[in-house]
Specification:
mainly beta, Neuraminidase, 4-stranded antiparallel beta sheet, globular
Length: 394
């Protein structure tokens, strides 16, 4: 696999949003009116939620999946000349979907998106080369699931989707070469799974597959696959300096330094990085933009062609989109990306997803949802400056 594919596949993998166990079960166990209120906050127009962007070089390079105001799945893709909305519907056995996680697989069906129904069942919809098809993946024995973080691994079992269980365990669903199989990953040491996210492939490591989760105790945990034995191991990354971790983590592999980083939001409103420095894991406090705190989970993206290859997007307490960027992975600068014209702010609860497109002058794109209109927006680098585009709604 060449370097460009590694970076772009990971860019799609790291952007998958998910919800905490408690939030997800509030939806699962409540009436339809409550589910609708989560998708369309009081006083606001119905909105899309949980964008998950993916890059695929085979056809339409950028596709972003969202949950619509009625709980259906949609995608918004660039067809080479304009952005187009497409309805993906909803499986017949559920009424509301949550937390789409899209992934590109060059070895099989090129594009797959995993979603969780309000019945706690995992589904996927995939492009078979000529049409979209739904699959019902059910759930592990004895529990329902929440959240979703999909990743492609160029190995015997190429596609994984990690989810949390109602019992606080981590699970993965993987393709074993002929069928889908569930695998229990247990609970983090001394805790249970609260937020699932940050599944990432590291081609430079003997342990190629990692998934980061936040525990109920506010610790960041990672479970990784031993490349020699295919056995899984938990590691407690501890808590960020002076605070605890919250919201969904994101992770990214950096090909230039061959390092792995995970980013989390702290309970103190700071953005924090947990990274492999070549010999050990270390924490770095990136702080927060002047006068605001971070109120969303972050979304990290890596572009080796940029002077500032590592970028992390997040929504601030003033509703603005912010990006922290670094040229060397150790010194960080914040930039206020503002808000789209006509919006009062961005919805931190609706999620965001950043992606790198190596084929376009619009190389970095960050998708977010407006808090007053409920529209999908993209903040992108046009080759010389940052700009906003209104993607509207399905």
């Amino acid at each position: 696999m060449n370097e460009t594919n590694t970076e772009t596949l990971l860019a799609g993998a790291v952007t998958a949003p998910s919800r905490s166990r408690h939030t997800q079960f509030a939806v699962l166990g409540a009436a339809a009116a409550l589910a609708s209120s989560l998708l369309a906050p009081a006083g606001l127009r119905a909105q899309v939620a949980s964008p998950s962007a993916v890059y695929q070089p085979t056809s339409h390079p950028i596709t972003v999946f969202v949950v619509g105001s009625g709980g259906e799945l949609y995608d918004n893709y660039y067809n080479g000349s304009e952005w187009v909305w497409q309805t993906q519907g909803i499986p017949h056995s559920t009424t509301n979907l949550a937390t789409p996680s899209a992934v590109y697989d060059p070895d099989s069906n090129p594009l797959t998106v995993f979603v969780v129904g309000d019945n706690g069942i995992l589904y996927d919809k995939y492009w078979n080369g000529s049409a979209w098809e739904w699959e019902v993946q059910k759930h592990p024995t004895g529990t329902t699931v929440f959240g979703s973080s999909a990743v492609w691994l160029p190995a015997e079992f190429p596609l994984y989707d990690f989810v949390g269980g109602a019992n606080g365990h981590l699970y993965d669903l993987y393709w074993d070469g002929s069928a889908w199989a569930w695998e229990g990953q247990g609970t983090p040491p001394g805790s249970t799974v609260e937020y699932v996210g940050g599944a990432v492939y590291d081609p430079a490591s003997p342990n190629p597959l990692y998934v980061f989760v936040v525990g109920e105790n506010g610790h960041l945990f990672v479970k990784y696959m031993n490349g020699s034995t295919s056995e899984w191991t938990w590691r407690d990354q501890g808590t960020p300096p002076g605070t605890t971790a919250t919201y969904v983590p994101t992770s990214v592999y950096q090909s230039i330094t061959e390092n792995l980083s995970a980013f989390v939001t702290g309970a103190n409103g700071h953005l924090l990085e947990n990274y492999w420095n070549g010999s050990a894991w270390a924490w770095d406090d990136l702080g927060a933009p002047t006068g605001v705190s971070i109120t969303s989970g972050p979304s990290a993206v890596y572009d080796s062609s940029s002077n500032n290859p590592l970028m992390v997007f997040a929504v601030g307490s003033n509703g603005h989109l912010f990006v922290a960027f670094s040229s060397n992975g150790t010194s960080w600068t914040w930039r206020d990306q503002g808000i789209p014209s006509g919006e009062t702010g961005l919805s931190a609860a609706a999620g965001l997803s950043a992606i790198y497109d190596p084929t376009s002058t619009n190389s970095i794109l960050a998708f977010a949802v407006g808090s007053s209109t409920g529209n999908l927006y993209v903040n992108y680098w046009n080759g010389s400056a940052w700009a906003w585009r209104n993607q509207a709604q399905p």
